[in-house]
Each structure stands twice: as C-alpha cells, then as structure tokens.
Amino acid sequence: MLLSSCKEEVADDTLDTSVIPIQVVRDMAFVQSDKGFIQMRMTAPKMEHFQYAKEQEEVSYDLYSEGFHVDLYTPDGALETEVNSKQAKHETTSGKESWSAFGDVVIINHIKQEYVESDTIYWDRAHQKIHTDCYVKITSPQGVMQGYGMESDERASHAVILKPFDSYSVMQDSTHRIEIIDSLNFVGPPVQRFAQK
C-alpha cells in the first residue's frame, strides 16, 4: 500500500527563550579581587541565562534557581558578610543592573555579629545599598529587631528597619563578664563561660 500527501509539513524549530534558557552553567563560581585581595566570591549550583525581546526591548537576566551564596570581604581580605538564599536573579535589561535574592534570605555580618533574615532582598550594586519592603528580623548581641522594610549598606553593617515592631534588647548584668572559650581544638559547639569580675 502506498500513501501520499499533498500537504507539506513545516517544522517549527523556534524556541521560546523567555521560558527556555539560552545558557545553563552548573557549579558556578565567580571571584572578584583587587590588588591580590578577594573582594567578593559568589557560588551557585545552577545558573540559567535568559535573553529575549519583549515589546521591542531586549530582556536579559541570570536566574539562580537552586541556591545562591555570596561572600564579601574587607579591603584587607577578611570575610565580613555572607549572603545565602534559595534563589536569586541578576537582571541587566535596558543597561540597568539589578539583583534580587529571595526565599529564606540570610545575611550574616561577621564583624558586627548580626543576622538579617527576610524573604526578599534587593541589591543596588551601583549605589552599594540593599533594601526590602518585606518582613525583616535582625538578631545581634544587643537583641532582636523586627519589622517591615529595611535599608542598609551592601555589607549589612548599618541596617535600619523602616517600620519596626516588637523589638527587644538583651540586658547584661554589669557585674558579670563573658569569656569566650577558643574552640579551635574543642570538639562540640562553642562554649560561653560567665565569670565574676
């Protein structure tokens, strides 16, 4: 039996690059340094790059859908700040650069011993600022602050909550001092010992 058809099949090979990345990088690592000192280290299990035209405008962004980690260092190379989130996005549409981290965002400032927790943080790299309109909790040796909205420098060393509520401070007895035991050779969690002055 022989079959024939007059209709010509045309295959559509175009891909929708608004939902399909044009590049995928696994185990991505990026290091920025100056005069031999590391300024920033960024790692992510997966980076997807999207680029497409929308309403006569070129859209370009990187999506980090499986986690995102950034280390920021002091000018002399000491680790100052860590940023962790479940996802992040780096957009460069219309020549403007914007960063956003979302999903259990935790920023740790090691120098001030502060932890900033929020659902979403925006990073304005050009102005070296971070901000959010979401719920924020800041934990430090002085206590806990929480509220909605925050503005800070990019290293989270001068964070200000815009609409605070239910914040509290840790009061310390001036007759006691805290000795922190060096845990370099200690097996187990760090120990704090209280001693009389």
Verbal overview:
This protein is an all-beta fold. It has one domain (23-182, 191-196): Sandwich (lipopolysaccharide transport protein A fold). The protein is 0% helix and 60% strand. It has no helices and 14 strands. The protein has a six-stranded antiparallel barrel with strand order 2-3-6-7-5-4. A two-stranded antiparallel ribbon has the order 13-14. A hairpin with a 2-residue loop joins strand 2 and strand 3. The radius of gyration is 24 Å and the shape is globular. The N and C termini lie far apart (103 Å).
For the structure shown, list the relevant keywords.
197 residues, 6-stranded antiparallel beta barrel, mainly beta, 0% helix, globular, disordered N terminus, lipopolysaccharide transport protein A fold, 14 strands, disordered C terminus
Write out the strand line-up for the largest beta sheet, numbering strands in chain order: 2-3-6-7-5-4
Instruction: Name the quaternary structure.
Output: single chain
**Helix segment tally:** 0
Characterize the main sheet.
Answer: 6 strands, antiparallel, barrel
How much is the radius of gyration in Å?
Answer: 24 Å
- The total strand number stands at 14
Secondary structure: elements and pairs:
Layout: E1 23-34, E2 37-54, E3 57-64, E4 68-73, E5 79-85, E6 87-91, E7 98-109, E8 114-124, E9 129-140, E10 143-153, E11 160-164, E12 168-169, E13 176-180, E14 192-196
Antiparallel strand pairs: 1-2, 2-3, 2-4, 3-6, 4-5, 5-7, 6-7, 7-8, 8-9, 9-10, 10-11, 10-12, 13-14
